[in-house]
Specification:
CATH class of the largest domain: Mainly Alpha
Distance between the termini: 84 Å
Radius of gyration: 32 Å
Structural class: mainly alpha
Helix content: over 70%
Shape: elongated
């Protein structure tokens, strides 16, 4: 009888152990699924972030590694938007609104890079007069943008104002590209230019 009872208790322990094992297995399987789903979500988020930063680096790296080359490329991109705006008719108010938004974004990003990095570096290099003159012209850029945003897009005067704006912008670009920036760049060492480029690109990434 003792032997039978012992076997019975042993069977109960084994049965209970198998049940507990089954429960543990089911628990771990569920945890594995949850873990897999969580991992997939994390991976998806990582891919999204990578794509976003990849886009930013692509946009910011279009002008090359050198700060002056990058700014020249951005100048050409701005002029290309002006070309598209000037090709619109008075009836294309939606297209004008959209292109004006693109122009404003491009100029805002460009201004941030110059005002936060390039112009302060010019002042440090004893070129405060040039830096202040260029920075003051950025104020007129904002005025033009404000006027174009508030004017009726179907007004005959709107496109005329765009052309005035472009003329002002082109003279600003000419001064930078032909006079101020080349002289400044030539006064810096390659290491100084590389550091300036890195700082400017970092600033531009904030808005890319």
């Amino acid at each position: 009888m003792a032997t039978t009872k012992g076997r019975s208790r042993t069977n109960q322990k084994q049965t209970g152990g198998e049940a507990n094992g089954a429960n543990r297995s089911a628990f771990h399987w569920g945890g594995g699924q949850t873990g897999a789903l969580a991992a997939a979500a994390v991976a998806g988020a990582a891919v999204g972030l990578a794509a976003n930063y990849g886009r930013k680096f692509l946009v910011q790296g279009m002008g090359g590694h050198d700060w002056i080359d990058a700014l020249k490329t951005e100048h050409q991109m701005v002029l290309a938007i002006f070309d598209k705006i000037e090709a619109t008719s008075d009836e294309q108010t939606s297209a004008r609104t959209h292109l004006l938004m693109k122009l404003k974004y491009a100029l805002d990003k460009h201004a941030v890079e110059e005002e936060n990095v390039i112009y302060p570096a010019l002042r440090e290099a004893n070129s405060a007069h040039d830096a202040d003159a260029l920075n003051a012209e950025h104020g007129y850029v904002k005025t033009y943008l404000y006027e174009l945003e508030t004017m009726p897009k179907d007004s005959p005067d709107w496109l005329a104002r765009v052309r005035d704006f472009r003329s002002m912008i082109q003279e600003h670009m000419r001064m930078e590209e032909e006079e101020v920036f080349p002289k400044f760049r030539n006064a810096l060492s390659e290491d100084q230019n590389a550091k300036l480029s890195a700082r400017m690109n970092k600033e531009g990434l904030k808005m890319a």
